[in-house]
Amino acid sequence: MTDLFDLTGKTAVAIGGNSVLGSAMAKGLAQQGAKVAIVGRNVEKAEEVVKEITAAGGEAKSFQADVSSVSSLEKAADEIEKWSGGWDILLNAPGKNSTTPFFDLGMNEWDDIMEVNLKGIVITCQIFARKMIEQERKGSIINISSVSSTIPLSRVFTYSVSKAGLNSVTQFLARELAPNGIRVNAIIPGFFPAEQNRKILDEERIESIMRHTPMDRFGNPEELQGAAVWLASEKASSFVTGTLVRVDGGFGSMTI
What we know:
Helices cover 43% and strands 15% of the residues. It is α/β, with parallel strands linked by helices.
């Protein structure tokens, strides 16, 4: 059964792989044998993740790109193709959040968040999925969504809307790319202490989250690795596409 999750010989591109959650999933893919390209705006953080992966016996390299810039993504794609010859897995894990109340929200801030969380994913999929088709590689695209994508959360209006859009993009592309042998799914993480949500986690907020989470705790970034590896594996999840996989401690099943 362990062969089901063996990613030896595969190359994974981790967009936002220098973030807390993105890096944890990238490391999980590397542990299963995948060669990993860590892509992010902050190349120093990306290089730190590369060092951790290589220290553990894996193979990785850092690449600089901004998901809101077509030219930088195309440049990164060309560099990664020269490095690895192509890729089989695309992990989309960039994210930007804001606590600005709805009536105080300016369109510059709205556009900024949408540029990263939604438009950036669309651009990334256009560039990297097209290359996968040209490379004649079947594979897996894994988008990172949020619990706020299905039940909007207070204080994070724009973020919630962007992630709801991401779910729709995921399911549309699952249909669009299936004939090319490319599966597209999303992971819906629950509450993990990542950079983009620390600023809204005051004591009252934490208490509210715990009341709504049956497992009564935050998630650890490493707990996303299993879902990422499963969705990345063409053997383990070969008939899975257009699916939103919850890793949320039961948050999505809670009502009153």
